[in-house]
Amino acid sequence: MDERPFFVGAKRFRSGHRFATMSATCQLTEEGDVNDPSEPATLKDVARVAGVALSTVSAYLNSTRKVSPALQVRIRDAVRELDYIPNFQARNLRMKRAASIGLVVPELANPYFAALAEGIESRLSGTGVTLTLSLTGSTGDREEAHASLLRRARLDGLVVISATGRTTSALLDLIERFPVVLADEQLPSLNAAFVGSDNRRGARSVADVALASGGRRPAIIAGPRSLWTAEARLSGYREALAGSGIEEHDVILERGDYTFASGLAAAMRLYPLERYDGSGPDIVIASNDLMALGVLRHLRRIGASVPEDVVVVGFDDIPVADMITPTLTTVSQPAHDIGFTATDLLLRTIDGEALADERVELPTELRVRESTR
């Protein structure tokens, strides 16, 4: 089996093992000189210790041609003995591969975005490609300012998670400069590859569960109008409502911005009394889990029981959704896979594939829990 060594950016000498490592790496060269163990090992050092040609070591580490199993063992042993850490950036430059990409994301406090970023990092693991992070908040001004800064950065490509759903002039300029892949949020006016989830179908499935409780006074807390995900989910909710025979004019529609605070504020508008008296919606469909958590907080505060008095559902399946009481019925998005796939498309685009028209919608999964009946 061809087992290439896995490299991480660790220090050459680890605490407690310095002298053992030094004794193992003080090797005599052919000229009788001693390698200085404080200096990083080079590819030539690996070739000399393994007793093979420099080109053979390079071919093995870069997977450019087959190397016999016996030589693979010798090279791996030399790599371990010398604690060799390859210079991935230099290798990527030589081979005309990506060396650095950027990620534009609203925030990482939202667990969904954090999981998506982890998927990006997973795809980059072992490639030597560095990741530049740009947190834009949820404002167009900051998104524009960060795009302007990224224009001057030495990047090979960019993964963009839009906070506003708007196409700025700076973002248009970025697409002219290097490859861009959109993740989670579509920007229809941009000619860029997109990876997200099937928001409409996922929204319909969770709304169907909420409506099956028998309630006839539903409320929806939708996301911002400018965001593609918000409108796709709202479309799915409306399909479910039509299927259950509830007229759209009988549905209360609130708007939030995908934050806990906006969900709490919407719930306070839906239930303005200090104590729950049975009035108000008997179903609340929130367009993401953070807003649903805000609803649950207010319902608990006013003494409403979930799901006996009010059924509540969310979207995203963030970790806390299965930790609270009652646990939240929601839709699980493959955030990690979205980040991984978006990055894979970006790297392939950088390598020359024409993928600007690629549209990937990954399936969602319904999670039925205690907040519905």
From TrEMBL:
Q: Which residues form the HTH lacI-type domain?
A: 41-95
Which GO terms of the molecular function aspect are on file?
A: DNA-binding transcription factor activity; transcription cis-regulatory region binding
The record lists the membrane-crossing segments as: none
Q: Which PROSITE patterns match?
A: HTH_LACI_2 (PS50932)
Q: Which InterPro entries match?
A: HTH_LacI, LacI/GalR-like_sensor, Lambda_DNA-bd_dom_sf, Peripla_BP_I
Entry keywords, A to Z:
DNA-binding, Transcription, Transcription regulation
Q: Which domain of life is it from?
A: Bacteria
Q: Can you name this protein?
A: LacI family transcriptional regulator
